[in-house]
Specification:
Two copies of one chain form a homodimer. Chain A has about 475 residues and is of the alpha+beta class. Chain A folds into four domains: about 15-105, Uridine Diphospho-n-acetylenolpyruvylglucosamine Reductase, domain 2 (2-Layer Sandwich); about 110-225, Uridine Diphospho-n-acetylenolpyruvylglucosamine Reductase, domain 3 (2-Layer Sandwich); about 230-335, Alpha-Beta Plaits (2-Layer Sandwich); about 340-445, Alpha-Beta Plaits. Chain A has helices at about 15-25, 35-40, 60-75, 125-135, 150-155, 165, 170-175, 200-205, 240-250, 265-275, 295-310, 320-330, 335-340, 360-370, 400-420, 435-440, 445-455; strands at about 30, 55, 80, 100, 110-115, 120, 140, 175-180, 185-190, 215-220, 225, 230-235, 260-265, 285-290, 315-320, 345-355, 380, 385-395. In chain A, the strands form four sheets. In chain A, strands 15-12-14-13-17-18-16 form a seven-stranded antiparallel sheet, sandwiched between helices. In chain A, strands 5-6-10-8-9 form a five-stranded antiparallel sheet, with helices on both faces. A four-stranded mixed sheet of chain A has the order 1-2-4-3, covered by helices on one side. In chain A, a hairpin with a 4-residue loop joins strand 5 (about 110-115) and strand 6. In chain A, helix 14 (about 360-370) packs antiparallel against helix 15 (about 400-420). The longest helix of chain A has 20 residues, at about 400-420. At the A-B interface, helix 8, strand 11, helix 9, helix 11 and helix 16 of A face helix 8, strand 11, helix 9, helix 11 and helix 16 of B.
């Protein structure tokens, strides 16, 4: 089958007008077309321009999502799934207009199977809501991308975050999902068994497909036991390279670290100022260990010895809840601490991921590039996976500033790709990284496009993303 | 796009004759057409009839695989990838003839990256070869399906085995792969970063696709550190249900058990006789713990307490290498022990997987069915995942025996599916389970077929499998 140009996204005014009428009639107050609501459902979190949909529907069931998709399909009008709007690469923009499907009313927890360590939920449930609901069961959902994202959105973008090094990413933690496909049919990709060899892995095909293949309407997720003991701490290092070498040794030694986060010197400086931390202004690793009391003490002890080998330390760690909470609050507030470095500026958050053996080199080259380009851009990283973020501070009203930031991001992506890495470890392609996908994966992108075309021949599912 | 009938597999005599001539010319001695070689490259491990290919090619590089596939594509002749021939559901049969691509000469280990805990290999490398090669590095490849399968075959069938409960399946342990697609192009599905959100997960789409989408020509695999200490043991239980409840509690408690294998009463009887074990003839769990000295002792102690709660015990465990080796040798010889229950009979090995909360019920119902049908069919299970195997002993020359076995397998599959499980946890669909895929996944199968049709419009890649 010949490949169509999936980048062409042209407004279908006639179809849109028809769909607006039908959905207003059908959903009443649960279908909104006001400018404020529409803009709020397009890309809002960075400088990528806001491209609002023509209407926002608030369905309450898979059946209602099917109705919306069938209506849009009949008129060849785009459908853009919307979770909590926390994505960073323009995933919820509507470059050719169309209908945003806001899943916030699909927020029921359908089942918690404590014996199987799994649950089935609707896509609008956020990870904080799920964990609050689970508290009494002794279980939790471990994936933590920072933002209180919706789980449907997290699945759609293959999100991960600080504890992926131990618990994996959304790829590893979705057992099954239901999705409404472009023809309006709802399919369920797997039953609830922990593993299966039954046919193609449609679960993993939908996870990370960014709404371009189907709209997720339910998810069955793996859960983990809340650890008996948690300890955490911070360890300064003379250089990023020493910190990275300590990370490599920690992973190689098989210490089942739950979080191991790098904060570079500039980011540390920002966090010390913002969160009133009492640490040296040098690159630091933030760590967390999960296990029994004996095991977390053993893990912390082993890590302390490794850190010392690479000139790091002192490694200060604690099992006291309040002290740990303060540390991780500071780590989670890294974004705000960074923004405070240049008041009035906006942060462009970008991410890449490389093999861990190349991490020190990649970060060092990136720091040098930041300096050479005169940018202010602190770095934090989920370094156990080789994944790091750069927050480029820029004046969004200064085209020169935006251009410099874009050039920096381009160089960063190509640098990561040249080191056998990826242009995105966890944010996804969206609109922001389309240019790098083929540089990374070559002809494999044609086979992605074949899937897209086979599932969605009229290109109505979140058009203009990924391809 | 309309769905073709992917089940239609008709011999293309003209095309086959042309391809035989071209490949003989091109590959000389590395292209064989003798009956013995051809039959050996078709299904050999159970009663499913042997359907030999017309020729067997022994390529030595991705480029040579591309040549073979392009030749076959030009003449619309089937291509069947062949690893070690250990699959159980007829995956390597050639129902419409065609060319078997034997990957045994593609057995180079291309790179071992100890810092990144990964390696890149050719598909003909077997797991034992890989682990022998890795020994000096302190790393190992953990997936162990029992047989010394090729890693290409293990990826193609999404294999797992005894320690999937801790280390995951092939789905979780393939970082990237290169595959030759039906149009002869070779694509690489990912770079070497640990995680990526860059586009559709083609890696997971190819893993488990059973050679129906492409021929895998290299794999980048995750490795694990060889544990500092390993302990193992056996624990008898009054009933399968008690054993299953102990498993559930063990998993819920978060004990990071490396293997937890159920052996039912009949299987235990067979193993005691075959391997001269000194255990009671009751359902047993075989366990293995990986970690530090302190951690494995702690894990064994915690498990012992749990077992006691469910009437199990005594739990005898050991860290002595020889004693552990004897135990696991007995477990791995379960197949031979079973066959010895009915000399001259053949074992049909089938597998299903259910949510662990349904496992006791599923096994009990299956044991009752075995008894009601008058079969001899011991059960072993990777019960940490809810996965179990039944070995049905049958006289392959007695059609009545085969019919009874098939009826039993059908009931077993539908029972697992009715309990929210899958008709195969790790063996794959092949030819043997085609009938159950739609019962399990409904319309989702149509979307699998759309992928197949988009990637392989002439249905030359391992036709007659999965669909």
């Amino acid at each position: 089958m010949a490949l169509k140009d999936l980048r062409s996204v042209v407004r279908n005014e006639v179809g849109i007008a028809a769909v607006l009428g039908i959905l207003k009639q059908r959903f009443g107050e649960r279908f909104q077309t006001g400018a404020a609501v529409r803009q709020q459902h397009a890309h809002t979190t960075t400088y990528i321009p806001n491209q609002a949909p023509d209407g926002v529907a608030f369905p309450e069931s898979t059946g209602e999502v099917q109705e919306i998709v069938k209506t849009c399909a009949a008129h060849k009008v785009p459908v853009i799934a919307f979770g909590a709007g926390t994505s960073l690469e323009g995933h919820v923009n509507a470059p050719a207009g169309g209908i945003s499907i806001d899943t916030s009313r699909m927020n029921r927890i359908l089942a918690v199977n404590t014996e199987d360590l799994d649950c089935t939920i609707e896509p609008g449930v956020t990870r904080e809501d799920l964990n609050a609901h689970l508290r009494a069961t002794g279980l939790f959902f471990p994936i933590d991308p920072g933002a209180n994202a919706s789980l449907g959105g997290m699945a759609a973008t293959r999100a991960s975050g600080t504890n992926a090094v131990r618990y994996g990413t959304m790829r590893d933690n979705v057992i099954a999902l239901t999705a409404v496909m472009a023809d309006g049919r709802a399919i369920t990709t797997a039953q609830r068994a922990r593993k299966s060899s039954a046919g193609y892995d449609l679960t993993r095909l939908l996870v990370g497909s960014e709404g371009t293949l189907g709209v997720i309407t339910s998810l069955t997720l793996k859960l983990a036991g809340i650890p008996q003991a948690i300890s955490g701490g911070v360890c300064p290092f003379p250089s990023v390279e020493d910190a990275c070498n300590a990370v490599i040794m920690t992973i190689q030694t098989g210490i089942p670290v739950a979080r191991i986060e790098l904060v570079n010197q500039l980011q540390m400086k920002a966090m010390i100022a913002y969160s009133k931390l009492n640490y040296p202004e040098s690159p630091c690793l933030f760590l967390e260990f999960h296990g029994s009391e004996a095991s977390v003490a053993e893990q912390a002890g082993m890590f302390g010895s490794i850190a010392e080998e690479f000139g790091g330390g002192p490694f200060q760690w604690t099992s006291v809840v309040e002290e740990r909470a303060k540390l991780w609050k500071a780590r989670h507030d890294a974004y705000w601490a960074s923004v405070a470095l240049k008041p009035g500026h906006k942060a462009l958050s970008t991410d890449v991921c490389v093999p861990i053996s190349r991490l020190a080199e990649c970060i060092a080259a990136t720091e040098a590039d930041i300096e050479a380009m005169g940018l202010v851009a602190p770095i934090v990283g989920h370094v156990g996976d080789g994944n790091f973020h750069v927050l480029v501070l820029m004046d969004e009203n200064d085209p020169g500033d935006i251009e410099r930031a874009e050039e920096f991001v381009s160089r960063l992506n190509l640098r990561a790709i040249s080191m056998d890495g990826t242009c995105t470890g966890e944010h996804g392609i969206g609109q922001g990284k389309v240019a790098y996908l083929r540089a990374e994966l070559g002809d494999a992108v044609d086979f992605m496009a074949l899937v897209k075309q086979a599932f969605d021949p009229d290109n109505i599912m979140n058009p203009g993303k990924i391809f």
